[in-house]
Amino acid sequence: MTYTIPYQASLTAQGNIVVADSTINTTSTSLALIGANSVNFGLYVNQDFVNLLQNFAKNTAPTSPLIGQLWYDTISESLKYYTGSVWQLLTPPFDGAAGTATLSLAGGTDIALTLANNQIIYAVSAVTIPQAGLPDSVLINSTSPPYALASRFPQGLGPGITLATTSGGFQFYGTAKTANALASNMTLSVSGSASGSVSFNGSSGATLPVNLNSVVAAGHYTNVTVGSNGIVIAGGSITSNDVTAALGYTPGVANGPANVLSFGSNIKLDGVIGGSNVFYGNSNIIIHTTFIDNPMPTNGIILLPIGSVIPTGWYIANGQTATIPNGGGSVVTETLSAPAGTNYIQKVY
Q1: How far apart are CA 118 and CA 246, in angstroms?
Q2: β-strands 119-125, 160-163: how paired?
Q3: Which region holds residue 41: left if phi is over 0, alpha if psi is between -120 and 50, else beta?
Q4: CA distances from 290 to 143, 273, 275, 294, 331 (A)
């Protein structure tokens, strides 16, 4: 006789389970259903008992599950029940407004959600999940309406606990080893030669504006005192004592005679003979002369084709400053305009 077995306690939209005589139905449910007059049915009966005792313990869900069927997931080590469309954790509880629930995301990543007052408060994840990897909304235990998810985690999820973002803001209470922000703003300040302050809570970088403290009135000072930190701490005008101390002697009157010129002057002879020497005013000089037609005089200023080798001690007369070896000072050459293809060169030392 054919067995007709209704789902649940009465007929449903799914219809009845039909088990023909002398057959064993292994496709309508996760168990083997034995028809009348089936041969060697004992193995199937025993296997059904074992499956029921173990709640179909396996790393994959049972095939052809029925509403209310239990399954022990050996991967997550948790007991789940079938709602008719999805497998849900039997524990922890969730009453539709508050509690905890798990959610499987695309790619097989599972996260845990904690809810209160019909909204997600925080999520727990073992891996980083960007916001793009979160669905806009989720159904939890087939409840309605859906719960917003992606919008509550604009930075995505990080490994560990991530608090949801709301206009009122959520926060941890207690002491945490690390945090994205301090519980209250702190003021960072500097004092001493400089001053400034800024409010800081660790949620983002902060720029601390610093101003140097005033020590003298603004103005032009010729005599200043500098502290060890390089900051001017006093200022005044130069006195005659400052000048005497700096020079090592008492200078004469302004525009009076001097013992030495501030820069060397080139005294040159021009005409049939030529020659030059640098005069500083602190000693006599000798000008060595040579006839102008001598191909390379020993002093003076001569015309030389561009590209010619300039002898040692000679410099192009273009107003440049030439240094005399062995501490002999320096000489500013004459500024002369030479004919095309030539340069005037000047004997400096």
Answers
A1: 84
A2: antiparallel
A3: alpha
A4: 115, 5, 6, 7, 21
Phi-psi region of 168 (alpha: psi -120 to 50; beta: other; left: phi over 0): alpha
Greater pLDDT, 144 or 330: 330
What are the respective helix, strand and coil percentages of the chain, to the nearest 5?
5, 35, 60
**Boundaries of every domain in the chain:** 3-53, 92-163, 216-257, 265-347
Residue from 232, 228, 227 nearest 217 by CA: 232
Residues comprising the chain, all counted: 349
pTM of this prediction exceeds 0.90: no
For residues 148 and 138, give the distance between their C-alpha atoms in angstroms, rounded to a whole number.
7
Q: Which two tokens stand for residue 31?
A: 């168990």
pLDDT in tens, 51-64: 999 999 999 999 99
- Token pair of 168, please? 């009122």
